[in-house]
Design brief:
It is a single chain. By secondary structure, the protein is an alpha/beta fold. The chain folds into 2 domains: 3-99 and 298-316, NAD(P)-binding Rossmann-like Domain (Rossmann fold, 3-Layer(aba) Sandwich); 104-289, 3-Layer(aba) Sandwich (Rossmann fold), CATH 3.40.50. It contains 12 helices and 13 strands. The protein has a 7-stranded parallel β-sheet with strand order 9-8-7-10-11-12-13, sandwiched between helices. A 6-stranded mixed β-sheet has the order 1-3-2-4-5-6. Strand 5 (74-77), helix 4 (87-92) and strand 6 form a beta-alpha-beta unit. Helix 5 (101-120) crosses helix 7 (157-167). It is globular.
Length: 325
């Protein structure tokens, strides 16, 4: 589909991933080329006149792509992470990068709660056993969230929404964030990483992927956890070392795992070792795997478009960026 609107505007907006129609409506007063199925050869040409580029996950926007786009001023990402954009190059060349984490924060938080409850109630395990002719009630005895301590690492958009949802379950909620402080409240206790490791029965990860977070959950971290714990990762796959998580499962230090992300999500390109790790996780009744769908709902698809559209329109109008509540 080639969607083109031309009005009197100095910006040339190129959208190379599928977006909700609401974004096109919000940008209708500007020149927009909507090419969700654009080829790399076509992009080589189209990007040369582009001043605003809008992407999701189709392509890594490298320094070489930005170098071809000599008129590029803004990259807008329909999502929460920025790890598919060379932000260092963008900053060096004064290319502004927007993302839209406010748009899918509720979706990720809801899936986190769902996966958490599934782990505690042995839903995945019980499902598999019934399909194999096993009806085991006592062996699938659950644990109640109300009596546990949930440690949240990463108290940004998702972490805050998740904490608010967990309060209604009556559990203790503690949170740590490397970049944010002063967020403690009556319902959420702000703590250091050591306190997370000392107190948490459940560890939920909601951090961006960067040098500080990459391979953060490794053997040393797992061994530093005072109690056996449940682990959930709905951030980025490379935050966890899968081999060390498997070791934690085998030693029973990790009671259950829910992963919405993997270090390598190109299943057709897994190494032999990665295939073995995935096979182990897939065959473990205490593990839940989903294909990076935490922020992917019909609702968030529209909300992401609204959030990013507002940011772009505000930027073009020289208005301050305001994060939606």
């Amino acid at each position: 589909m080639h969607y083109l609107k031309k009005l009197s505007d100095s910006h040339h907006i190129l959208i190379i991933d599928e977006v909700h129609p609401v974004l096109l409506d919000m940008l209708e007063n500007h020149s927009v080329i909507y090419r969700p199925h654009i080829t790399l050869a076509e992009l080589e040409i189209a990007i040369q006149e582009t001043t605003i580029l809008i992407v999701r996950t189709k392509l890594y926007i490298s320094a070489s792509w930005m170098a071809k786009a000599t008129k590029l001023r803004v990259i807008g990402r329909l999502g929460s992470g920025m790890d598919n954009i060379d932000t260092d190059y963008a900053e060096e060349h004064k290319i502004i990068c927007f993302n839209a984490p406010e748009g899918n924060r509720n979706a990720v938080a809801e899936q986190t709660v769902g996966m958490m409850l599934s782990l505690l109630a042995n839903i995945n395990k019980g499902h598999k056993e019934i399909l194999n002719g096993i009806w085991d009630r006592k062996g699938n005895e659950g644990v109640e969230l109300a009596n546990l301590c949930v440690g949240i690492i990463g108290y940004g958009n998702v972490g805050r929404v998740l904490a608010a949802k967990l309060v209604s379950f009556g559990c203790k909620v503690i949170a740590y964030d490397l970049y944010t402080s002063g967020f403690g409240s009556e319902n959420v206790q702000e703590v250091g990483l050591k306190e997370i490791q000392d107190q948490a029965d459940i560890l939920s990860l909601h951090v961006p992927l960067n040098k500080a977070s990459e391979a953060m959950i490794d053997k040393q971290f797992i061994d530093s956890m005072k109690k056996p714990f449940y682990l959930l990762n709905l951030s980025r796959g490379k935050v966890c070392v899968l081999a060390d998580i498997i070791g934690g499962l085998e030693s029973n230090k990790i009671r259950g795992v829910a992963l919405d992300v993997l270090p390598n999500e190109l299943l057709e390109a897994l190494s032999e070792n990665e295939k073995k790790e995935l096979a182990y996780l897939g065959g473990n009744n205490g593990v839940i795997l989903t294909p990076h769908i935490g922020g992917l709902t019909k609702d968030s698809f529209q909300e992401l478009a609204k959030v990013l559209g507002n940011k772009i329109v505000n930027w073009m109008g020289n208005h301050p960026l305001v994060n939606p509540k």
